[in-house]
Input
Amino acid sequence: EAGVAQSPRYKIIEKRQSVAFWCNPISGHATLYWYQQILGQGPKLLIQFQNNGVVDDSQLPKDRFSAERLKGVDSTLKIQPAKLEDSAVYLCASIVERDGDEQFFGPGTRLTVL
Amino acid sequence: ELKVEQNPLFLSMQEGKNYTIYCNYSTTSDRLYWYRQDPGKSLESLFVLLSNGAVKQEGRLMASLDTKARLSTLHITAAVHDLSATYFCAVDMFRGSGTYKYIFGTGTRLKVLA
Output
C-alpha cells in the first residue's frame, strides 16, 4: 500500500513570496489533515478535510494560508505572502475512518522563509 | 481546550537503562497514540491505545493507558542507541460532528548514549 505522498520535500523562499504544497493521501482515506510543525514542537493542526469538505480550519491563518481538496482526494496548501515565522515543516496526514485508526503521515515539506 | 503535556521534554540516558516517559492530558478521551519522529523525518505510528488499561508492547517499548488518571506512559527497557528519537503522544477529541481532532503533546527528545 502506497503511503501519503507530499511534494516538494524542501522549499526555500523569500518573505512575501508565495508557495504551495501538495499532498496525496492513502487511497480510500476520507480524512486529510495539514499540520505545521515548528522546530522543537509538536504538530499543530492547520486544517482538516473530510472528503472535500472542511471540518476544522480554526487555526489556519486565513489572511495568508489557504487549502483545498478538490474531488476529495489530493490537497494543496498555499501560503501567500509568506512570513519568516512560517518556516516550519508542513505535514500531511490521513486516516481511513473513525475507528481508532492512527494517522498516517507523509514525509513533510520543509519550508524555509528568508 | 484539550491540553497534552509530556515529561520529560529531554531525556539523555545510558544504553541498558530503563526509563519512562509520561503523557498527561486535560480532558476525557479514550484513545491515545504514540508516535516516533527521527530527525528530519516524519512521524511513525508506534502504538494505538483504545481503552482504559490498554497495554501494548513492541520490542523494548511498552505503552499503557489509564483514562481515569488521564495518563499514558511509554516505558523503555534496556535502551539501545537506535531508540534515540523524539516521541510524541497524541489524544483525540470528539467534535460532536462525527469527526475527531488530534492534539499532540510537546514531545520528548530521547538520546541514548553508548
Remarks:
- Chain A has one domain: 5-96.
- Chain A has a mean pLDDT of 92.
- Chain A has no helices and eleven strands.
